[in-house]
Amino acid sequence: MTDNGMLDKAAGKAKEVAGDVAGDGKLKGEGLVDQVVGKAKEVATNVKDAAEDLAEEAEGVKEAAAEKIDELAKDAEGAAKEVADRVKHAVEGK
Prior knowledge:
Blueprint: H1 6-22, H2 25-92
Helix pairs in contact: 1-2
Keywords: Coiled coil
Domain CsbD-like: 5-53
Pfam family, one: CsbD
């Protein structure tokens, strides 16, 4: 299970409210800090997920490029053979 910050945010909110109700500024401050930590974890998780998605997309692009290169190489090979045959026929007078 990935820690996406939800627990920190919830616990932080609870501390903030408890601190507000009890008039305990320190507890309220701890709650606010916990919420910030939770948000930071959430952002870090989102960045990690986005990076993984980009890596997957890049792999797909890489595979498509490799297929296109193979296709172009085969086309170029065929064209080179055709040119070679034409030159050979021209030289032999056929």
